[in-house]
Amino acid sequence: MRAYAVVFTDKGKAAYNEVQVPEPGDHDVVIDVECSWISTGTESSYFRGERIRGETPYKPGDPWPFPIVAGYQKVGIVRQVGSAVQGIVPGERVFAALSKVSGMFEPYGGHIHPAVTPAGQIWKLPQGASPEAYCGLVLTQVGYNCGMRPAVTPGDVAVVIGDGLVGQWAAQTLLHRGAEVFVLGRHDDRLAHLPPQIRGVHTRRTDAVSALEGRKVAVVVDSVGDMDTFYALQPSMKRDSHLVSAGFLGEKGLVDIQKLRGQEITLHTPSGWTGKRMEETIQAIADGWLHTSPLITHRYPADRAAEAWQFIQQSKSGALGIVLNW
Predict the structure, then answer these.
(1) 2-136+292-325 domain in CATH 3.90.180.10?
(2) Where does the Enoyl reductase (ER) domain lie (predicted)?
(3) The model scores a pTM over 0.90
């Protein structure tokens, strides 16, 4: 079956190419994709050849992980359902995560149309849902998961390291749970997207610990893999506080448990997605407290994906939510 996809053809090279996908089976759903959301953090690490799959970093001697279809999230209209699929019918708008592809380093990818997708990677969206609002749902769920993992008492101080999408959604979730939230970032344009109740701290101008003005921290969410900043914050953390580590640390992800034990800091290591969390994230967007569309800063036609990736590499500060329209 013929399709089109955003393919990382080699390290640092992206293209919009015709690809082959398997014929749909009894447990598959075929989707005509409307839009897909680039996960700039995760996808950039694949683009740079830093990962071989999932949370596994590339090491010399590993198979060269190209070509590969980028991404893992999109929204579209159901065209066809397999005979064993229940509860999904043609014409419905759905979110799809990983879809099948042939001839690539990995047999699954995200930015691909039409998308032949196992039914277990499909979630139905609310009636009248905006495609753009939900097309980054996996990544939104990561931020939601980061914000839901730690225990939070209203009024607790929570610090989010990183002003990217995961940091934004983690901060929104912690705010919804009643925390006083600080976001540490390095980009004025990204910090400007924070809700007014959240305090953005530009760490190139303001010391993170000084910005807390003596407050004791109950939660630290590291969305970017910056253990040095966590260690700087640790003396300000309360006893029985929480560290949520979601950033990709490659081979440097070492945590000295003994350094956490003195304050009884609980370590959370969220990764990936589950059906329950996806459903909860869909509901949070529908309820209006988890905001996605306002974080979209750029839109490209899918056949201009190479331009999108050129922009991402040249202007990291300006690249927040980037959507491809199919």
Answers:
(1) yes
(2) 41-322
(3) yes
